[in-house]
TrEMBL record:
Biased composition (Pro residues): 417-433
Biased composition (Basic and acidic residues): 502-519
Signal peptide region: 1-33
Protein origin, superkingdom: Bacteria
GO molecular function, one term: hydrolase activity, acting on glycosyl bonds
Origin species: Labilithrix luteola
Swiss-Prot/TrEMBL keywords: Carbohydrate metabolism, Glycosidase, Hydrolase, Polysaccharide degradation, Signal, Xylan degradation
Keyword Hydrolase listed: yes
Protein name: Endo-1,4-beta-xylanase A
Annotated region described as Disordered, given as residue ranges: 413-577
A single GO BP: xylan catabolic process
Keyword Hydrolase: yes
Biased composition, class Basic residues, residue ranges: 553-572
Compositional bias per record (Low complexity), positions renumbered to this chain: 450-501
């Protein structure tokens, strides 16, 4: 009994699986909307082909927006297969433009102590466009023979391989529509783009590239925008790897990473550049304090007479729960006979809330979806050089990604540079905290205005300091800025420090001098630096006896070895100090004795 029960359950599951596969196959009808590009018999064919395609699957079928760009030919015929009952329109270029702009990856650096500035750069579009070409009237070809005869009459070449694929189109119950595009007399090789062709029919959720060939010189580049209630994948889809990205010389390497991804592709690999709900109605805030407007805002501002009101309506509807009603395209350009005609459906959210006058592309893209949970996925792919493409089915998979990717910057230093602090004229601590190495930075106008860095060392040993000329007189060494133990009543000094303010007569520094000290202990107000020893009778301190200002010369200042914040230390007497003691001890007694003798 158990064995029989198991067989029965397996049989039921197999039956259900077969039914599900049949239902999927029935719904996923072919859709070759990107079509074939025919060159004239006198030309070899387009050297470059780029395709932008937006796909919005619904419960009644699919709406597809396609724009092709070619180079290397003066004119082409575009053959587009459509399903019976299809409604065909020219859509505004602003729709694909808005999708391209709002979903494009942005490569950014994070602001940090090592990188105080955030770089943000928009990645270049994979499939690009050129000037718009004025199309000929669109024609519907109900039979294969009619399509072939029309192409031959207009001087366009149908290869044997393409001919077999055209036969396959009609065998699947589809028909071809044709339109001619020309470069309008532009120089040879000029890129030109078609208008945006919108087709709404009962096709399944496929990417229709079976009739799309690669260029004769370059691979055809494909950019797809897929709508749904979840992120989309197709075939072998991979996400952008943020670990492969970096910045250098204020540029990022996203384009190079993408190029490398497709170097070995046979046309079955796809790169998912972004998958986001936020871009639809909220927009994206960037780390450099700018933002990318939402798809709704960008689209309505380019197409609607009252963009603010239309944007507000769409954004309000996006906050509601439930599905959007089903909208039907106008079919103003052409309607193909037969098939299942589109029927508008009421939803929890009226489709009119996403429509603004004739601008109905947003409503068509979100028909039957829940706007509060909808996603738009951006995919990049190729059709290899001079080979035909293949159709691929969209599926839900993965999670939200992009459109912002953070990458490290090679422009940033590996260790933080100490930030300069304002000049000061008293021995107060620096305004900035010490860095990892315990260093401080003091910006000073003294000694040529160079920045002086001091290290906060804990060494308690006594170190000898340089003379006054070593500090500010032009030598490469710098004096230590610590206490000397001199009394504030002394009248002579060595030039141990420089004033940080150019208009101060004196400054109180770490050498222990009181603010009452003579101005000879610091740099002059107008000099902006410290003196060197003058060759015109200047004393050891570098002062001219006939003037109150020091002689100045520029000098390089090296970081001192001890911080002004550390414990004050006695320093050994300088030659000037010894001379002063000698004068007091020897000369003054002699003068007194001389006076006694004179009296």
């Amino acid at each position: 009994m158990r064995s029989h029960s198991r067989v029965s359950n397996v049989t039921r599951l197999a039956g259900l699986a077969s039914f599900a596969l049949f239902a999927v196959a029935l719904h996923a009808r072919p859709a070759h909307a990107t079509g074939a590009i025919l060159a004239s018999a006198s030309e070899s064919g387009p050297t470059e082909i780029d395709v932008q395609l937006a796909v919005a699957p619904t419960t009644q079928g699919t709406t597809r927006w396609t724009r092709i760009t070619t180079a290397g030919t003066h004119d082409v015929m575009w053959l587009v297969p459509v399903r019976p009952g299809a409604r065909i329109d020219w859509a505004p270029a602003a729709w694909l433009d808005a999708l391209d702009e709002t979903t494009a990856p942005r490569i950014a650096t994070r602001s940090s102590a090592l990188c105080p500035v955030s770089y943000v750069e928009r990645a270049t579009s994979w499939a690009t466009t050129g000037p718009a070409s004025a199309p000929s009237p669109l024609l519907v070809h109900d039979t294969e023979s009619d399509a072939r005869a029309h192409a031959a009459a207009r001087g366009y070449r149908v290869t044997a391989d393409l001919g077999s694929r055209i036969t396959d189109v009609y065998a699947h119950g589809e028909v071809l529509v044709s339109v001619e595009l020309a470069d309008a007399g532009a120089p040879p090789g000029t890129r030109f783009s078609s208008p945006t062709l919108r087709v709404s029919d009962d096709a399944g959720p496929t990417l229709p590239f079976a009739l799309t060939n690669g260029g004769s010189v370059l691979d055809a580049r494909l950019t797809v925008f897929a709508f749904g209630n979840a992120p989309k994948v197709v075939g072998a889809t991979e996400d952008v790897d943020p670990n492969a990205l970096f910045w250098t010389a204020s540029r990022n390497n996203y384009g190079a990473v993408r190029e490398k991804f497709f170097e070995t592709s046979d046309g079955t690999r796809w790169l998912r550049e972004s998958a986001s709900h936020q871009v639809l109605f909220a927009g994206v805030s960037l780390p450099d304090a700018t933002s990318v407007p939402s798809l709704a805002e960008t689209y309505f501002r380019a197409t609607a007479s009252s963009p603010a009101a239309c944007e507000a309506s769409a954004k309000s509807a996006s906050l509601m729960q439930g599905a959007l009603g089903h909208a039907c395209a106008a079919g103003a350009l052409a309607r193909v006979g037969g098939g299942i005609d589109c029927v508008p459906e009421d939803g929890t959210i009226p489709a009119i809330t996403m429509t603004c006058g004739d601008a109905d592309d947003l409503a068509l893209a979100l028909s039957g979806l829940s706007p509060s949970r909808a996603f738009v996925t951006r995919l990049a792919g190729i059709v290899p050089l001079a080979t035909p493409g293949t159709d691929a089915v969209l599926a839900n998979a993965g999670s939200a990604s992009g459109p912002i990717y953070y990458a490290p910057s090679n422009d940033c230093v590996t260790e933080p540079s100490p930030a300069p602090t304002p000049s000061f004229t008293d021995p107060s601590p620096p305004a900035s905290a010490p860095g990892p190495s315990g260093s401080y930075v003091v910006a000073s106008d003294g000694c040529g205005g160079s920045t002086v860095s001091s290290s906060d060392e804990s060494d308690t040993s006594t170190e000898s300091s340089g003379s006054s000329d070593d500090s500010c007189g032009g030598s490469d060494s710098s004096s230590s800025n610590d206490g000397s133990g001199w009394d504030s009543s002394d009248s002579s000094s060595s030039d141990d420090s420089c004033s940080s303010s150019s208009d101060k007569k004196s400054s109180s520094d770490d050498s222990g001098w009181d603010s009452k000290d003579d101005s000879s202990d610091s740099c002059s107000g107008s000099g902006g630096g410290c003196s060197s020893t003058s060759g015109k009778g200047g004393d050891d301190e570098g002062w001219d006896e006939n003037s109150a200002t020091p002689k100045t010369r520029s000098t390089k200042v090296r970081p001192t070895k001890k911080s002004s914040l550390g414990p004050r230390r006695k320093r050994g007497s300088s030659p000037v100090s010894r001379l002063a003691i000698f004068v007091v001890a020897i000369v003054l007694p002699l003068r007194r004795r001389a006076r006694k003798i004179s009296f």
